[in-house]
Each structure stands twice: as C-alpha cells, then as structure tokens.
Amino acid sequence: MTAPERLDRYMARAVAAYYAARNPFGGAGDFTTAPEISQAFGECLGLWAAVTWEMLGRPDPVLLVELGPGRGTLMQDALRAITEVAAPFRAALRLHLVEASPGLREAQRARLGDAVTWHDDAASLPPGPAILLANEFLDALPIRQFIRRGTGWAERFVQEGAFLEAPAENPPPLPVAAPEGAVQEVSEAGEALIRALAARLVTQGGAALLLDYGPAAGGLGESLQAMRGHAAADPLAPAGSVDLTAHVDFAAMAAAARSAGAAVHGPLPQGIFLQRLGLMSRAAILARSAQLAGKPGQAGLILSGAERLVAPEGMGRLFKALCLCHPALPVPPGFEPA
Length: 338
Ligand code: SAH
Prior knowledge:
Strand order of the largest sheet: 4-3-2-5-10-15-14
Largest sheet: 7 strands, mixed
Shape: globular
CATH class of the domain at 14-143 and 186-277 and 315-325: Alpha Beta
Distance between the termini: 56 Å
Bound molecules: S-adenosyl-L-homocysteine
C-alpha cells in the first residue's frame, strides 16, 4: 500500500504528468479552449494588452507574460493584432512564457519563434513592469478539499486510486459552520500565485488579466473534474491520463490580490468582457472575408465559434475575466462599470 497523498499534491503531480505526456487541445484531444475556438479571442486580448500598455505610460521595455500558453495560439493571435495596430508596443515588449511542459514549450516555439524566455513558474520572471495574460491556467492549479465532519473538518486524500478522508493537516481558515458532509475547496497554490503577482504589480507596475471558469463568489461545493476525449472522466483514473481541473474561486483570488495591495477589477462574465472588447465585430469581419473568399462553411464556423465564447449558455457566463493591477492604473478596457 502506498501512503495516502493529500489531494492537492496528487493533483499537482497528475496535472504535471498529464501535460508532460500529451498535447490535449482540439478535436482529437481531450478539451478545447477559447483561443482554439476563435482567433478573435487572442486578437482581442492582444489589443487589451496594447491599450493597457498605453495606460501604464508606455513602459519600454515591458514584459508581456503568458501563464500556461498551451499551444501558443492565444499569444500568436495577440502578437499579430499588436503588430498590426500597436507597433510601438510590439517593439517595447519582451515575451516571457510560464510553461512547465517540455512538449508544449516546443509547440509554443514552433508558433512564436525563439525570441521568448520560458519559465517553470512565475517566481523566476525578471523584475519590471509587466502585462500578464492567463487563460485556463488557474483551473489547473491544485486544490485541497475539506469535508465537514461533526464540528470540524476532515481532509481528502488519494490512495491506490481511491479517495479517503483523514484529519486535516494545518488547514487554512474554513467556515465555522457547514452541513455534515459539505465540501470546501481551497486553492492555496492559486492564492499564493495571485498574492505574488499582485505584489509585483504593486511594486513594479503592470496589470494581469486572468480568464477562467468558476463562480464569481465561491462557497461550499465540489468542483474537481476530469476530462478525456471531450467527455467527463474519472478524476482518479491513473495520474496523467485525464485532464484535472477545478472551478476557480474568483472571490478568493480577488481577496488574495487585494491583501497584497493590488487594485482588482471584475470578476466579470467572459461574454460581457469579450463583447466590450469588440469580439463579435471582429468575428463578423473575419466571417465576411471568408464569405468573399468563397468559403461560406468557414464563415459559419467563425460566427458560431465567437457566439460560443460569449453566449451565456456557452462559455459566456461560467467563464470570468478578472484583472489585477497597480492601484494607480485607470480602469482597464472591458472593466468599465456598466
Ligand atoms: N492557455 C491555454 C492552455 C490552457 S491548459 C489555452 O487557453 O489554450 C493549461 C496550461 O497551463 C498548459 O499549457 C499547461 O502545461 C500549463 N500548466 C498547468 N499547470 C502548470 C503549472 N503548475 N506550471 C506551469 N504551467 C502549467
């Protein structure tokens, strides 16, 4: 019998093994993400970064950072848009990617070239003003799960492909009351990352835009999920064989950022945010070019893809956008009060 492994340690190991072993994106893979659905997503985020750079006072050089860039699609689309409409920003930016998977680093190199510095984690990013982007990165960070038992909390562990409960190890602050058996998830890794990012934005300037799925305000409930071949799978399938994610608790992330002194904007439903950035207009232009090129099928896919990103019943409501920034920065694009 192997020793029980705390759920967050198991998840960290399983996620690392998963991304090290496969390229999970797209139709033949396990799941698809916004930048893989529509090029307008990365383009809009690139323009968001360009406007934010202006608001920051055009620092030169400036770090443009992406956390968990996957196949590099978002950044490729962002850089194309930046090159077209914001040449001075393109000249000032230095590209840094935080990516743990060697295979995905190669995929990123194939799309973005060699003028990139890769990092295993955000701690090794150099100092200086920075604009950071992350899509579906926080949901891959490990969570702990606490289960209400009597007047206290037990914690979930994994052993030999099964869950078990044991006394919680140094638990973080947890609700004082909850129904018997209720589950409280906590992403200590996510909160620590957000505190560190917020601290650097406060001392060195910049802004971070995080898009992910999860409720605006967390609470009791279980959200750990596994995906394989675009369908739900067993989270305890052999480590590395399925994609493990959990809902991001945006309220907890915002609180972590504020505790480090950063200003926080959002969370805002992704659909509202992307529409404010002009995603649907961009998709309409792309669809029209496809039509004119005699590709009506492609035009239809462009429009349905964009629609999926913004529609409430698609990814428009469950996914959220959150911005952390230096407190002196004006409200960044898309986060204006309604
Ligand atoms: N942003 C991309 C990919 C999302 S999948 C998209 O939207 O398509 C998650 C990405 O984060 C992958 O690139 C994965 O290798 C990376 N990743 C996950 N956990 C990580 C960790 N702890 N450290 C560094 N990279 C990680």
